DNA sequence: CTGTTAGCGCATTCAA
DNA sequence: TTGAATGCGCTAACAG
């Protein structure tokens, strides 16, 4: 494996000259540059990026920590991250936090292998996040609240989203509205539920018997929770599912029982995942500004890298998407 | 930022001792080890992974090169890659090849930042792939044929897949079968088309007027190609779309024109993406063994790293998934 | 415009 | 069991 030394030797110049030539420094004459490039080509020289990074004490890359590289896929959000990173001339790598402390994600978080990181991974502990955050290593968290120096936070307004979902159902004339929620320890879920309660309270409507923290944010969870609801025999007029996956599971359960949506019962979800447009009926839901969240997250990283002072928390707003699952 | 020197100083030992202690060498007494670990903790020491990698001349990580981190999402394939990588104690990072020669992917491919790479990115040129392949840097390509030393190749049998798709339609009694294809320069597309032609020829059926390389493998491309077909006025009895995305676009176009599937015309796709199960009607398609392909790809990397001799090409077979889009 | 040289932070060899 | 010394490959300050 040829190193820059070999290239320099073959070109008959000093190592530094070779380095300058290869890195497009202006201080090198065209002739020398040519010679060095030619030498590099004949030796099939490839620079060792690791050595380069070590020397410069920066990597020019940002890590995106995901709970699982194989999905669930926050496509829009990643697009936002990707676009802004590229626009700033940085590189982006994605890694998974499967495996907890042994995971690739933790390795990258801990070992200064990147210049900053964005975390969108519920399976990474707050502790690891806090331990990794340091002066000069900006960390932006997207899916939780962490109060800690050097940890910044972008979130969508889940509470208000829960509020407008419920408000919408109330405006449609429903009074008996159930909330089928996700995991108890999910921050997003808590906030959506709170929004739901607030909207009800504002209209002096009492909440439907609690089905929070039963659906687990999965399609299957939504299916089972809905089956349970049906088995109880007292269906509400409308259901607000904590996320679209659960709502889609619910749609399936209703279909199994010949209950038609939205004629018999109205359904609203949360997230606006791609699938929600394709299920039948198309799912009315709350859309999150995912692209913007991703873009903002990286933008914050760059601001911190540039030494600017920024807030430790940013909140983006949600929006109703009307489709066909509410009567 | 504390380095290992600082830790050693605080613990009152030599740097090497600190290194051994931190890396669980047996040659360090328990007492010393404790002292070093404590020092590391109080200084909030984090090792510099880059320096470590440079010294050891290996990174213990594999790169997965994708055309775009934000999808299209080869979920199953990535899962295969991920599982096997983790099982071998290696780390996995994903990076995108958007931006061509300036992309993160190329940087990782060229600069020895990883111990091996798997390429699933149509937007990376053969030339870059070939240039990057070297002794000691195994490269596995998943979406094209490259004949070159040190480049290995895992593919699904697209030709046979195209064959069984067409064969299936013929068996259902159709004679007038169109193929709507993807990009002209796509290897997968070429092979699927060839399989289509072979099946027709075997039954002495002539091909429908060529619509190959019109659909671009995108939903929108499939939509437009189908619109064109409809505008022509002479609909075939059945259509074989080069991939599911295009087929789904086609379904939409037919819906726009009140043409019902499969009553009026039969449709078959290729890939078995997640969505194909949810569209209406559910899409009959050809399933690729994606998980296996991903798993095999990494497995090959490890075999090469271990110095074993392997074939330069592996082919996996496809399978028909019957749903409701063929009459 | 080009060459000499000192580290970047760490792991590891060799002596003690 | 520990410590001193070396160098992984590269960049950049400095000198010429």
TrEMBL record, chains A, B:
Keywords: DNA-binding, Transcription, Transcription regulation. PROSITE patterns: HTH_LACI_2. GO terms for molecular function: DNA-binding transcription factor activity; transcription cis-regulatory region binding. InterPro entries: HTH_LacI, LacI/GalR-like_sensor, Lambda_DNA-bd_dom_sf, Peripla_BP_I. Residues 2-56 form the HTH lacI-type domain. It holds the Pfam family Peripla_BP_3. It comes from the Bacteria. SUPFAM superfamilies: lambda repressor-like DNA-binding domains, Periplasmic binding protein-like I. SMART domains: HTH_LACI. The keyword Transcription applies. CDD domains: HTH_LacI, PBP1_LacI_sugar_binding-like. PANTHER family: HTH-TYPE TRANSCRIPTIONAL REGULATOR GALS, LACI-RELATED TRANSCRIPTIONAL REPRESSOR. This is Transcriptional regulator, LacI family.
């Amino acid at each position: 494996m040829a190193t820059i030394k070999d290239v320099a030797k073959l070109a008959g110049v000093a190592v530094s000259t070779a380095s300058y030539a290869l890195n497009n420094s202006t201080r090198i004459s065209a002739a020398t540059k040519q010679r060095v490039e030619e030498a590099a080509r004949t030796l099939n020289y490839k620079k060792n990026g690791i050595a380069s990074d070590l020397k410069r004490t920066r990597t020019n890359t940002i890590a995106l920590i995901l709970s699982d590289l194989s999905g669930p896929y926050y496509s829009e959000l990643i697009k936002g991250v990707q676009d802004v990173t590229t626009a700033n001339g940085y590189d982006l790598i994605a890694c998974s936090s499967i495996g907890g402390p042994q995971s690739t994600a933790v390795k990258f978080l801990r070992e200064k292998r990147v210049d900053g990181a964005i975390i969108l991974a519920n399976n990474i502990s707050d502790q690891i996040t806090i331990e990794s955050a340091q002066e000069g290593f900006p960390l932006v968290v997207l899916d939780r609240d962490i109060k800690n120096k050097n940890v910044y936070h972008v979130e969508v307004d889940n509470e208000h989203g829960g509020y407008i979902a419920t408000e919408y159902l109330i405006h449609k004339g429903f009074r008996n509205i159930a909330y089928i929620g996700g995991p108890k320890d999910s921050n997003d879920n808590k906030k959506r539920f709170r929004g739901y309660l607030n909207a009800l309270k504002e209209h002096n409507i009492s909440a439907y018997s609690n089905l929070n923290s039963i659906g687990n944010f999965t399609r299957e969870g939504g299916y089972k929770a809905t089956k349970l609801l049906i088995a109880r025999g007292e269906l509400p007029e409308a259901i607000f599912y904590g996320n679209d996956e659960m709502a889609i599971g619910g749609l399936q359960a209703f279909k199994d029982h010949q209950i038609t949506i939205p004629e018999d019962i109205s359904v609203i979800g949360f997230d606006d995942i791609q699938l929600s447009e394709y299920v039948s009926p198309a799912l009315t839901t709350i859309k999150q500004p995912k692209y913007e969240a991703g873009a903002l997250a990286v933008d914050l990283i760059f601001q911190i890298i540039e030494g600017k002072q920024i807030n430790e928390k940013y909140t983006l707003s949600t929006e109703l998407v009307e489709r066909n699952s509410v009567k």
